[in-house]
């Protein structure tokens, strides 16, 4: 049981039917907790139960149970994980502490089968392992999104820069219009003065003049109406041209999104279902494999004395089996639980190695399937989005076509109205010309004054349009500074995204090399000067600097003090174990796992001598709030008594 006060416990674990555990409950406080005991005392099962509570699937249901349960209380919150045996394998349920345990399975749960620990001994690709938790697909999608946003900003900045070139011409046009308005106003005043001079004529002339002015006013109004309809026709024509251009773009986009060029959504979904079923089958295989491996490990370590006694009793029921039973108590052989025959321990261990190797292969296949499933889910989402976009294009295209027809109808009506108003102007002009004002010069002056007034209205309208365009351009140019700042932020973001993988690699290598150097000094291995990782990659043009692999170097020294590079294969088992653990620690620190999970688990360190185990445990404890380590009694006895201990599970 745990040597801690229940009232002081900050981490509590209740387990039912997990691994070799029927039922147990333990409490832990921050710091080092030692699970001490001989082999086959369910220490690893307890560690895996804790992993399950955290969210890991690397745990098995007890062989004779249909259901299992883990309840984890940490930080004042309680999390539950359930295991249920089904025809398709063990299914997990509940609400674990973490939703995604990819990183912690690799770098925090350091059991014997941990991939990061085994990577050095198996000479695996260290770079691939350290980068596995990085969602490169998500990073690439974010890069594409930021690139689109940057390109849109570039287009907008370029468009606004071209507006700057228009300003001189617009300002010159504004000056010209002002001058022309002044000249036209002066000309109008001159004509009006001449008209006033004619107004001093006798009353008869004024009466005729009044009728003339009335007709001229009607003519001005008619011409103004005609100008309005002409302006509206121009506006409608421009709108129609814009709509026709929009229709052409939409039709081009629609052709590009031709459904015949898209992969069948149904085919993708069938492939996705097939991969999911395969992944589910593999998970079922893995659960069964784990149960077989755990059971055989228990058998080898005399973990289940009741089973062996029952097996012996069963064998003794037949006379011919009696000699075999007697031999079991006198040799290092064991009884195969599948057929009852006698086999050597080495044979069982060899089979276990094969099973573990097969399990690792199936885990690799499960990871590949998980990546494929993610890609297929992304493809399904993409096709569904493309089909939605195609339907939206159809809707927009129909709407634009209807609007084009409406505009054409309106334009035809406006043209008919223009013809009517032109006829109206001609009628009034004829009426004006038939008037006998008694003074042809006065008639001409009024006509000139009318035309000058009309021209002034047009000039002022043009000037107002030019002023509005200048103001709009100046407003857009004033925003250029902010747009450039946004563009710089996007460029920085792109650089960060593109170098995120490289930065992660560099940090991992620096962390490993630093901690490896510290630990080698503390552990004092004979003639090892340095173990370090080098990033090896291609420096080709356009390369983002990411490494192809991590190359592990071992530097030794002779008794004469001469240094030389040795092979990783020549590392002792103890040295390999330490190197693998430091590699896992580097991953733990690179991904800041201490902020996500406060627990580091460790077992199966018997290959390291006792004094070095103590040093290693104390070193790892500096980086984790909870360090739970399974040790043999003789190794645990070397640790300070201040560390909590769990002796019974």
| Assembly context of the chains | single chain
Low-confidence stretches: 1-9, 302-331
What is the element string, with H for helices and E for strands?
EEEHEEEHEHHHHHHHEEHHHEEEHEHEHE
Major sheet characteristics: 5 strands, antiparallel
Kindly provide the radius of gyration, computed on alpha-carbon positions and rounded to a whole number of angstroms: 44 Å
Beta-strand residue fraction: 5-15%
Number of helices: 15
What form results from the Cα inertia axes?
Answer: elongated
The total beta strand count reads 15
Mean pLDDT: 82
- Structural class by SSE content: alpha/beta
What is the share of helical residues?
55-70%
Query: What's the N-to-C terminus distance?
Result: 7 Å
What spatial order of strands do you see in the largest sheet? 2-1-4-5-6
Notes on the protein architecture:
By secondary structure, the protein is an alpha/beta fold. Among the domains are: 143 residues, P-loop containing nucleotide triphosphate hydrolases (Rossmann fold, 3-Layer(aba) Sandwich), CATH 3.40.50; 189 residues, no CATH class; 107 residues, no CATH class. It has 15 helices and 15 strands. A five-stranded antiparallel beta sheet has the order 2-1-4-5-6. A five-stranded parallel beta sheet has the order 7-13-14-3-15, sandwiched between helices. The longest helix has 90 residues.
């Amino acid at each position: 049981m745990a040597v801690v006060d229940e009232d002081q416990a900050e981490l509590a674990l209740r387990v039912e039917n997990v691994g070799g555990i029927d039922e147990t409950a333990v409490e832990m406080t921050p710091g080092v907790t030692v699970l001490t005991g001989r082999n086959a005392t369910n220490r690893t099962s307890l560690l895996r139960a804790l992993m399950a509570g955290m969210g890991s699937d690397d745990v098995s249901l007890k062989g004779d149970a249909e259901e299992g349960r883990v309840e984890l209380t940490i930080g004042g919150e309680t999390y539950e994980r359930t295991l249920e045996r089904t025809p398709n394998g063990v299914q997990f349920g509940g609400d674990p502490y973490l939703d995604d345990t990819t990183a912690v399975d690799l770098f925090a749960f350091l059991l014997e089968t941990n991939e990061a620990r085994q990577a050095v001994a198996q000479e695996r690709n260290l770079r691939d392992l350290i980068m596995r938790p990085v969602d490169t697909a998500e990073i690439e999608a974010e890069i594409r999104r930021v690139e689109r946003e940057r390109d849109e900003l570039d287009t907008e900045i370029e468009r606004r820069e071209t507006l700057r070139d228009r300003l001189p011409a617009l300002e010159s046009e504004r000056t010209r219009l002002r001058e022309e308005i002044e000249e036209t106003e002066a000309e109008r005043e001159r004509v009006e003065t001449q008209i006033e001079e004619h107004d001093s004529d006798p009353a008869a002339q004024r009466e005729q003049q009044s009728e003339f002015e009335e007709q001229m006013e009607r003519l001005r109004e008619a011409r103004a109406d005609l100008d309005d309809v002409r302006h509206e026709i121009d506006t409608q024509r421009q709108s129609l041209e814009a709509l026709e251009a929009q229709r052409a773009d939409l039709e081009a986009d629609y052709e590009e999104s031709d459904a015949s060029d898209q992969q069948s959504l149904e085919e993708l979904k069938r492939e996705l279902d097939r991969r999911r079923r395969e992944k589910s089958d593999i998970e079922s295989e893995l659960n069964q494999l784990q149960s077989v491996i755990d059971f055989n490990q228990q058998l080898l370590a005399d973990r289940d004395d009741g089973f062996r006694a029952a097996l012996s009793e069963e064998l003794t029921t037949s006379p011919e089996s009696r000699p075999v039973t007697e031999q079991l108590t006198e040799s290092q052989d064991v009884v195969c639980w599948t057929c009852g025959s006698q086999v050597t321990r080495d044979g069982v261990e060899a089979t276990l190695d094969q099973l573990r190797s097969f399990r690792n292969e199936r885990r690799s296949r499960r990871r590949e399937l998980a990546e494929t499933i993610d890609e297929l889910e992304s493809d399904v989402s993409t096709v569904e989005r493309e089909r939605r976009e195609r339907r939206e294009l159809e809707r927009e295209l129909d709407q634009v076509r209807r609007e084009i027809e409406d505009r054409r109808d309106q334009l035809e009506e406006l043209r008919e109205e223009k013809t009517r108003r032109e006829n109206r102007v001609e009628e009034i002009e004829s009426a004006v010309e038939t008037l006998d004002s008694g003074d042809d010069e006065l008639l001409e002056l009024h006509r000139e004054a009318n035309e000058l007034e009309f021209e002034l209205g047009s000039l002022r309208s043009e000037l107002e349009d030019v002023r509005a365009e200048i103001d709009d351009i100046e407003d857009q140019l004033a925003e250029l500074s902010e747009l450039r700042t946004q563009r710089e932020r996007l460029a920085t973001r792109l650089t960060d995204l593109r170098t995120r993988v490289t930065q992660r690699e560099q940090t991992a290598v620096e962390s490993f090399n630093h901690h490896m150097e510290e630990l080698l000094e503390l552990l004092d291995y004979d003639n090892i000067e340095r173990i370090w990782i080098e990033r090896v990659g291609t420096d080709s043009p356009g390369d983002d600097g990411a490494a192809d692999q991590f190359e592990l170097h071992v530097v030794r020294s002779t008794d004469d003090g001469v240094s030389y590079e040795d092979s990783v294969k020549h590392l002792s088992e103890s040295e390999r174990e330490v190197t693998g653990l430091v590699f896992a620690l580097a991953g733990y620190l690179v991904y800041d796992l201490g902020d996500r999970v406060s627990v580091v688990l460790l077992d199966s360190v018997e290959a390291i001598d006792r004094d070095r185990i103590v040093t290693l445990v104390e070193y790892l404890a500096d980086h984790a709030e909870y360090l739970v380590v399974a040790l043999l009694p003789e190794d645990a006895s070397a640790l300070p008594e201040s560390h909590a201990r769990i002796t019974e599970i």
